[in-house]
Amino acid sequence: MQTNEELIITLKKIVKPYVQDEQAFENVTENTDFIKDLKVNSANLVDIVLDVEEAFDIEIDNASMERMLTVGAAIDIITEKLAAK
Amino acid sequence: MAVNIFNNKRLKNFTHIQSKLPYSKPFLFVDELHAVTENGIEGSYTFPADSFFYKGHFKDKPVTPGAILTEVMAQIGVVCLGIFLLNDSLTANTEIAMTSTQIDFYKPVFPTETVTVRSVKEYFRFNKLKCRVEMVNTSGELVCRGTISGMMKANNHA
User: What is the superkingdom listed in this entry's lineage (chain B) (predicted)?
Assistant: First the structure.
């Protein structure tokens, strides 16, 4: 099982290509909002979710997608899905 | 994109898709749809010689703008396919937005030419439809090719 630290490192790698606000990305916390803070658009948020599915070999359902607005929420969802595997 | 995606079930009548397109002249770029499946779509458009953009693109030398070729590919390849895939969940409030394009251009298209667009779905998830799309002219020559994505969200709250 990966630690939260490791999850964040993997997640940051996935998110990086889609980030439009580099400064917010450098100071990323669990409260960082993908759309409001990192200025990712909703279409690229879909790509992030698809990349997350591939990287962690999990499936994100519609309800999880709707919750997945912040880095912290993403970590929670990934942890939940990994635990359920 | 050589894979034949149209072997499965062919539909003869596509007016139900075209009637739901949110465009009108002079910005409707779908004349005919030839085939549509869960995985892809093919359609065509003929550029009338009096299309508005030929007056200025270019001065005294009409050539179809790349932006318009991209729009033709998006309307046939992504929006028409999206309408088919959304089917009954499509309403007048469905929000449509192009979100990204990456297109390479190979041949010019002149007034009165007919182009055929073929699109293959890469994925349609969380309201985002991403397609690999190509356009050929009547000689079968590649005009342009690339990927186009759009969001199509059935918004029932509006």
Answer: Bacteria
